[in-house]
Amino acid sequence: MSRKTPAQLRSNLWFGANDLRSFGHRSRAKQMGYANEDFLGKPMIAIINTWSDLATCHSHFRERAEEVKRGVWQAGGFPVELPAMAITETYMKPSPMMYRNFLAMETEELLRSQPVDGVVLMGGCDKTTPGLLMGAISMNVPAIYLPAGPMLRGNWNGQVLGSGTDVWKYWAEKCAGNISDCDWTEMEDGIARSPGHCMTMGTASTMTAIAETLGFSLPGASSIPAVDANHSRMASQCGRRIVEMVWEDLKPSDFLNADSFDNAITADMAIGGSTNAIIHLLALAGRAGIKLDLRRFDEISQRTPMIANLRPSGQFLMEDFYYAGGLPGLLKQISPLLKLDCLTVSGKTLGDNLAAARVSKPEVIQTLESPVCASGGTAILYGNLAPAGAVIKPTAAEPGLLQHTGPAVVFKDYNDMAARIDDEGLEVTQSSVLVLQNSGPLGGPGMPEWGMLPIPKKLLREGVRDMVRISDARMSGTSYGACVLHVAPESYIGGPLAFVRDGDLIELDVANRRLHLQVSNEELNQRRATWQAPAPRYTRGFGALFAAHVTQADLGCDFDFLHAGAATPEPEIH
Ligand code: FES
Hints:
Number of strands: 14
Bound molecules: FE2/S2 (inorganic) cluster
Structural class: alpha/beta
Shape: globular
Number of domains: 3
Mean pLDDT: 95
C-alpha cells in the first residue's frame, strides 16, 4: 500500500507554501500557542463533536474528545476539535429527523472548508450517526466513527428499566390505573442514570451497530457502555488509528460498496434493529452512490434470523449485550450470512476483525440454529395504501395482529389524535385500525416518531395492549406494537393515506406483505379529485429548504441535491 507524504497532505495546501496566505495560516496557529513542530507536515485531524448541554446522551463527549486528541498526538497528528449541531432526540422539535440533513451538510462543509486531512466523528444519539456519516461520505476524507456508547441499565424497585420501551410499557399501566404517581416519579429518577445513548436496541444502538458493520468504527466500538473505561481507551485508539488512515489514504469510498451495505442490513436484522435504520441506510447509500432498494431490506430480513435477545423485541439491554460479546460476538454468530472480505477502518477485513470474537452469554446473543426469531425484524409492505412501500416490525407486534382487517378510525393530524384519542365517545374497538395522517417527511414535518399511536384509554382499561396502527410517520426504535410506518408517498402530498375515511376497511397481511384499503378505485379517484393540498408550513429558513428538497421515505429523506453526483470542488486557497 502506498503511503502519502507530508507534502501530499490536504492541510499542506493551507500551511506548506512559502507565501502570504500560508504565513497567515501559520501565524494564526501560532496565535493559539502551537509551534511549527506541532502542525507542519502532520495530518490535521478534525474531531467533530456533537456535544451540547442539551445533548444528554453525549454528556461525556468533552472528556472523550480530549482522549481522542491524546491518541492523535501520540500518533504524530495534529488534533482540532470542531463542534457541530448536537441533534438531541429528547428536546428538538418539531422532530430531530428534520435536522439530520442539516448535520450532514454541516459535517461535509466543516471538512471541506478547512485544512482537514482526516476526521473522527463523535455521535450516538439517534440522528447524529447518520448525519455525521452522510457528511463524511460526501466529503470522502479518511473518517472514523466513535460511537457514544449506551448508558447503563435503568433501575427501579428491583426491576431493570430500558429506555423508551419501558416508558411506553409503564405509561400504559399508569393510564390503566395500575401504577401510582409515586412509582412513576421513582422511574423518572432511575431510567436514565449515566451518560450514553438509549440502552435498548433503539435507533441509537441500531445505527451505531450499523456504522461498525459498514466498516466505519473500530471492532467492538459500538457496544462499549459510555462510562466504561474501555470507552475512553477506544477514544484514544480512534485518535491513533485516524492518523494512520490519513497516511494510508483510506477513505469511505474504499470500504463502502453493495456488499458492506448488505452486511449492515444483515446485522440490522440480526439485532432486531429500529425501523428508522431503513431510512438512514437508504440515505447513506444514496450519498455513496450505491443502489439500494427498499425491497432489499425485506429480502435480507427473510433470510436473517434475529439472534440478539434485546428490548424492545427481546429481554436484555445493551449493557448485557456488551458483556455477552457485543457486536463482534453477534457478527461472528451470523458470519455465514456476511461478506467477510469487506474492508473496514481498522485496515483489515470484517472477517479479520472477528477472528477473536466470541459469545459468553448465549441467552443474550443466540445462534442461527436457535434464534430469538426465525426471520429479521422488518417487513416491507405494498398495496394501494402504500404504492411506494411501508414498513412494519413484526417481531415487536402481537402476532395475532399481523393478519388483520378492521375499520379505520382516522385522525387528520397529531393534534386531532391527541384531542380525541381518549374521548370516551370515540367509536373505537380492539379491532379498529388507527390511522394518523399528515405525519410524514413534509407533513410532520420531519416524519416525527408518532407512529406508535397510543391505545385509547378506554381500551387500555379493558386490557388491550396492541392494535393495528398506520401512519406516514416513523416510530422510535424503542417502541413496539403492530404499527405500520413510513407509508409512501405521504398523505401531505396526496398519497393514498390522505383519502382514508372513518369506517373504511383496511387489510394488513404481513405474511403476504400487503397493505390494502378496501375501497374501489372509482371511489378513491373521487376522493382524490376533491382533496385539497395543505398550505406550505414554511416560507423561509431551513424549513423552506427542507420542504423544497426532502425526498420521501422510500428514498431515505435526504435532500435531492445531496445525493451522490459530480464532485463538489475543493475550495481555492487564497
Ligand atoms: Fe439519545 Fe435516545 S435520547 S439515543
